[in-house]
Amino acid sequence: MPLSRSLSMTSLSGVLPSWEDDELPVEDLLLFEVAWEVTNKVGGIYTVIQTKAKITADEWGENYYMIGPYFEQNFQTQVEACEPPNPTIRKLTDNLGDKPNVICHFHEWQAGPGLILSRSRKIPMATVFTTHATLLGRYLCAGNTDFYNNLGRFNIDKEAGERQIYHRYCLERAAVHCAHVFTTVSEITAVEASHMLHRRPDVVTPNGLNVKKFSAMHEFQNLHSTSKARIQEFVRGHFYGHLDFNLEKTLFFFIAGRYEFSNKGADIFLESLSRLNYMLRVRNDVTVVVFFIMPAETNNFNVESLKGQAVRKQLWDTAHTVKEKFGKKLYDALLKGTIPDMNSILDRDDFTIMKRAIYATQRHSLPPVTTHNMLKDSTDPILSNIRRIGLFNARSDRVKIIFHPEFLSSTSPLLPMDYEDFVRGCHLGVFPSYYEPWGYTPGECTVMGIPSVTTNLSGFGCFMEEHVSDPAAYGIYVMDRRFRSADDSCNQLTQFMFSFCQQSRRQRIIQRNRTERLSDLLDWRYLGRFYIHARHLALSRAFPEKFKMDPIAPLKTEGFCYPRPYSVPPSPSASVHSTPHHSDAEDDDDESYDEDEEAEKDRLNIKSPFMLGAIMCSSKLTHFHHHYLLYIMYCCCNVSLKLLTPSPLSKAFKKCENNN
């Protein structure tokens, strides 16, 4: 039976590992979660706390509490007031005694003092500390340091002191070493923490999303089309007078996030856009409009951007007025049984109105590259690099740039769209980050069915490479920024974008279906179990007499990998044309494609996690299993094995080969 892809955990149902062994007796426990971002939206950690809250509350019920800073506005809009029965955790544990036991989870260095004091005062509770990014790592990368190639060479104390963050760094490091369990959000951040904080994380807890919030079933393709039409309307206004490119052959790319020019990869992105512009001018008729959604210091919208939307609206009103008059005269003529004279159906006033509208679209300057007046126009990194590469939205440019230096809002007079609707309307999100402990932006693209570019220096990119055997086939393009030079990374990103531009409309639809299918991997109903594992581990270390756990048992997710799509990936290589200009007829070919059928075959191809540790720890292996493991070693290592019992082993090899 065809499966529904968009409801959380459906397309991976029965395949994602079940962790019943880690279920905790929550009725005998209390869970506290402490973070500066509780109801306080200042970064990605707020998204972690906010999206994870529902599944945690569903599991823990009334035994789950969150602690954060008091801000009156946030308090009034996001929480319900209640009086705590005890003013501090110490008094609570004194009153509780041995039951129920308490788990306290602290996020980031701001919550560190609470953890340190709790341990120093010997409060009987299990503690977990999560760093979402090391404090010093952020500062070093913001200074354009060759961070990952010098992880083992930094004088940590000296670097923290020079940046005047030594006190905060000491808090962070002390909290890390005081916690029963130390976690971080990705493997790449685990490597960083090992060097910066001198403790290897016990558990990696990837960041998830509330996928049900974004779930649109099979409507997500229609939502893409609807939102794309709204973006096209904005583009018509922004490029009035220079709208000499076909909007039906125009792709929308975007980058969004904090304005960290190098950390977020905006420098690499701009250089790659310059190279893409050259390639499209030479070989293709596709136009790419690129949005930079990064908040910066401005004083208002610029006049030219507002004028463009006013001109567009005026033209729409004029066309609507003429259409109404034309339609009424045509209707009257047809009722009389005559074909109207097309030369007389519009009078002189109509032509005058249309000529005035056309004259209003005349423009003697290029469309602006930014929608706002920048306070630091001359030194702004994005604008400075746009000047360097010369992408000024000229008619000859196939890559157009729009820098929107504020968060999107449906109440904006310029681009009235919420971020979620805007993402749905784009074709590709590009996030070539150098420093990105996790990366929610490509994750949000994935659950909305929008392909994206990420890197192997982001937690999201590493996670996808680990869990998806061929990420590019699912619309997740992972750049190599760890083992390549900056120039090679630019070339790779340019090639990713150019190949995407070569895809037909039908190929992009197929790819969006596959991208959206990966949303199950990012659901908290799956990723929340890493937190369950961390809590269980903390309890086993804080109360070893009551909670037992094998400290060296491998996680049940090790070896899990989503397969390549059942059918051939939607690559443009199979449909490259001998001439740069080609017909759209290819979009209407008769090649059969059943998205639900492919999804079902993908699900059947998924195998259970392969855990070498679990196999090797077993004390009872059958004779054939022993030989089969040696056979695997033989095949993988391609070496000759000198064996004491060649006859049975050779028979086992032969049997394996015959079966394969």
Automatic annotation (TrEMBL):
<feature type="compositionally biased region" description="Acidic residues">
    <location>
        <begin position="585"/>
        <end position="599"/>
    </location>
</feature>
<comment type="function">
    <text>Glycogen synthase participates in the glycogen biosynthetic process along with glycogenin and glycogen branching enzyme. Extends the primer composed of a few glucose units formed by glycogenin by adding new glucose units to it. In this context, glycogen synthase transfers the glycosyl residue from UDP-Glc to the non-reducing end of alpha-1,4-glucan.</text>
</comment>
<dbReference type="InterPro" id="IPR008631">
    <property type="entry name" value="Glycogen_synth"/>
</dbReference>
<comment type="pathway">
    <text>Glycan biosynthesis; glycogen biosynthesis.</text>
</comment>
<keyword id="KW-0808">Transferase</keyword>
<dbReference type="GO" id="GO:0005978">
    <property type="term" value="P:glycogen biosynthetic process"/>
</dbReference>
<comment type="function">
    <text>Transfers the glycosyl residue from UDP-Glc to the non-reducing end of alpha-1,4-glucan.</text>
</comment>
<keyword id="KW-0328">Glycosyltransferase</keyword>
<comment type="similarity">
    <text>Belongs to the glycosyltransferase 3 family.</text>
</comment>
<dbReference type="GO" id="GO:0005737">
    <property type="term" value="C:cytoplasm"/>
</dbReference>
<keyword id="KW-0021">Allosteric enzyme</keyword>
<dbReference type="GO" id="GO:0004373">
    <property type="term" value="F:alpha-1,4-glucan glucosyltransferase (UDP-glucose donor) activity"/>
</dbReference>
<protein>
    <recommendedName>
        <fullName>Glycogen [starch] synthase</fullName>
        <ecNumber>2.4.1.11</ecNumber>
    </recommendedName>
</protein>
<feature type="region of interest" description="Disordered">
    <location>
        <begin position="571"/>
        <end position="601"/>
    </location>
</feature>
<dbReference type="Pfam" id="PF05693">
    <property type="entry name" value="Glycogen_syn"/>
</dbReference>
<keyword id="KW-0320">Glycogen biosynthesis</keyword>
